[in-house]
Amino acid sequence: MDTLSQVIEQLRKEGYEEDFNLQQNCLECRQGDFKVFHDEFVIDRIYRFEGESDPADEATLYAISAPKYGIKGILVNGAGIYTEDITDEMLNSLQINRH
User: Fold this and answer.
1) Rounded to two decimals, what is the model's pTM?
2) Are 46 and 61 in contact (CB under 8 A)?
3) Which of 51, 79, 85, 93 shows the greatest Cβ crowding within 10 Å of its Cβ?
4) Could you give the dihedral angle defined by the CA atoms of residues 65, 67, 68 and 69, in that order, rounded to the nearest 10 degrees?
5) CA-to-CA distance for 86 and 63, rounded, in angstroms?
6) Strand, helix or coil at 6?
7) Over the stretch 40-70, which tens digit does the pLDDT of each residue have?
């Protein structure tokens, strides 16, 4: 699989149904109605995509599970995790493959 959309499609088939949004101290899904904090999720896989000529085309895709809640989903970060205003705990959780 070479493209972001191909990987997302495959992950959806594997049950990664939620679309997570990165917040300062948690991941949100279901239009912000559900929050998962840094100690409640596991990074199952990380995929990095690089733009051929434009660094702005770079993206990181995280396959994430929250066993406590029985949910799996994805988080796509387009410009690099360091550009987000997040807590150290969230940054550490997203850098380490804890599975």
Assistant:
1) 0.80
2) yes
3) 93
4) 60
5) 19
6) helix
7) 999 999 898 886 656 556 888 999 999 999 9
